[in-house]
């Protein structure tokens, strides 16, 4: 059982996390998208990445350094950015799956196919990690002011408080690990989903990863043989 907070949010020490890990992950997703073959990305090619980059700049300006500002505007910009990143990676994933099923030109070379598959898979890991990070317990700024008694994810440090410092908060790396393990183990590993939205998101991510890996590997073996 997750213990309730013994002090009010106003009495808790402010624990904000650095902005740069999130910014690096967003830039990585944008770059990975641009590395994909033209047939797998939206047109114009630079349209969506440019919007994502502008949203990232706006978020950084709105809450630079430590993420601890409780601002509806910054929160809305951040949620919009993450939603756009997730939508972009899902679009690229669907396009790649369609190409794999049809046997399109982008899947005729085993090396190109494996590269595209790896890029799409990694983009999904990063995008879903960002999604979990942004939506859990009201977002990073809200978590900086204190964890709620009933969070969206239950991390081991919350289930066993003696394993963590008193002011422990889940950081960006915890959600990146969650996104990676959901895509590889196809199930929760350390953090347990407690809400309907994150159970559905993890289920969707595991399904996408399973279908993508299965089709890419099968197609690559077929091309090589």
In short:
The protein is mostly helical and 225 residues long. The chain has helices at 20-35, 47-62, 72-102, 110-135, 140-144, 156-159, 172-184, 196-224, and strands at 17-18, 66-67, 153-154, 192-193.
Detail the topology: elements first, then pairings.
Blueprint: E1 17-18, H1 20-35, H2 47-62, E2 66-67, H3 72-102, H4 110-135, H5 140-144, E3 153-154, H6 156-159, H7 172-184, E4 192-193, H8 196-224
Helix pairs in contact: 1-2, 1-3, 1-4, 2-3, 3-4, 3-8, 4-7, 4-8, 7-8
Shape category: globular
Q: Which structural class is indicated by helix and strand composition? A: mainly alpha
Q: What percent of the residues sit in helical stretches (DSSP H or I)?
A: 55-70%
Euclidean distance between termini CA atoms = 53 Å
Spatial strand sequence of the major β-sheet = 1-2
Tell me the β content. under 5%
Task: Describe the structure in your own words.
It contains 8 helices and 4 strands, in the order E-H-H-E-H-H-H-E-H-H-E-H. By secondary structure, the chain is mainly alpha-helical. It has one domain. The strands form 2 sheets. The protein has a two-stranded antiparallel sheet. A two-stranded antiparallel sheet has the order 3-4. The radius of gyration is 19 Å and the shape is globular. The N terminus is likely disordered.
């Amino acid at each position: 059982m997750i213990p309730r907070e013994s002090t009010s949010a106003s009495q808790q020490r402010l624990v904000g996390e650095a902005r740069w890990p999130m910014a690096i992950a967003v830039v990585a997703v944008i770059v990975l998208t641009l590395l994909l073959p033209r047939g797998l990305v939206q047109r114009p090619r630079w349209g969506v990445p440019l919007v994502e980059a502008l949203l990232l700049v706006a978020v950084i300006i709105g809450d630079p350094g430590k993420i601890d500002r409780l601002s509806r505007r910054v929160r809305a910009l951040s949620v919009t950015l993450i939603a756009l990143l997730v939508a972009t990676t899902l679009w690229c994933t669907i396009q790649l799956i369609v190409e794999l099923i049809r046997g399109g030109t982008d899947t005729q070379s085993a090396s190109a196919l494996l590269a595209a598959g790896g890029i799409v898979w990694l983009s999904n890991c990063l995008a879903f990690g960002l999604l979990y990070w942004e939506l859990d317990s009201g977002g990073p700024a809200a978590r900086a002011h204190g964890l709620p008694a009933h969070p969206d994810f239950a991390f081991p440090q919350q289930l066993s408080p003696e394993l963590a410092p008193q002011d422990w908060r889940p950081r960006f790396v915890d959600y990146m690990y969650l996104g990676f393990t959901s895509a590889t183990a196809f199930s929760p590993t350390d953090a347990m989903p407690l809400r309907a939205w994150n159970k559905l998101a993890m289920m969707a991510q595991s399904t996408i990863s399973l279908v993508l890996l299965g089709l890419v590997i099968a197609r690559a073996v077929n091309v090589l043989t």
